[in-house]
């Protein structure tokens, strides 16, 4: 590995608060460094699961919107459910995916 450039670590001030908290809680002791080998695979697995969940929520939202079209004014209550329950759930999943992406360095 002679002559290979070593990429410096980012300054802690360049990291998001969420990422600093994650790193602090993940590496509290020297023993935690031993399990860091599994951290990337755990994060990738979580990322994959969150992506699938997000995709499912997006599909369900699309299906719900498609069901509203033929209902006309009767769809108002359903639209309230979408806006009040399903859309916030979708937004929450998007935020979780973004957090995992940040942790995984994607």
Order of helices and strands: HHHH
Shape: elongated
**Oligomer type:** single chain
Tell me the structural class. Answer: mainly alpha
CA radius of gyration is: 20 Å
- Which percent bin holds the helix content? over 70%
For the biggest sheet, the summary is: none
Topology:
Elements: H1 17-26, H2 30-34, H3 36-68, H4 75-104
Helix pairs in contact: 3-4
Summarize this structure as a short list of keywords or feature phrases.
106 residues; mainly alpha; 4 helices; 0% strand; elongated
Give structural notes:
- With 106 residues, the chain is mainly alpha-helical.
- It has a domain at 40-106.
- Helix content is 74%, strand content 0%.
- It is built from four helices and no strands.
- Helix 3 (36-68) packs antiparallel against helix 4 (75-104).
- The longest helix is centred in the middle third of the chain and has 33 residues, at 36-68.
- The model has no long low-confidence stretch (mean pLDDT 78).
Short structural summary:
The chain has helices at about 15-25, 30-35, 35-70, 75-105. It is mostly helical and about 110 residues long. The chain is elongated.
């Amino acid at each position: 590995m002679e002559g290979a450039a070593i990429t410096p670590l980012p300054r802690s001030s360049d990291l998001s608060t969420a990422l600093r908290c994650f790193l602090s809680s993940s590496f509290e002791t020297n023993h935690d460094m031993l399990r860091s080998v599994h951290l990337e695979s755990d994060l990738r697995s979580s990322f994959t699961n969150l992506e699938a969940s997000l995709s499912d929520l997006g599909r369900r939202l699309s299906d719900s919107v498609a069901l509203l079209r033929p209902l006309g004014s009767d769809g108002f209550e359903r639209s309230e459910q979408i806006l009040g329950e399903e859309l916030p759930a979708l937004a929450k999943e998007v935020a979780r995916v973004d957090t995992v992406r940040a942790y995984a360095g994607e």
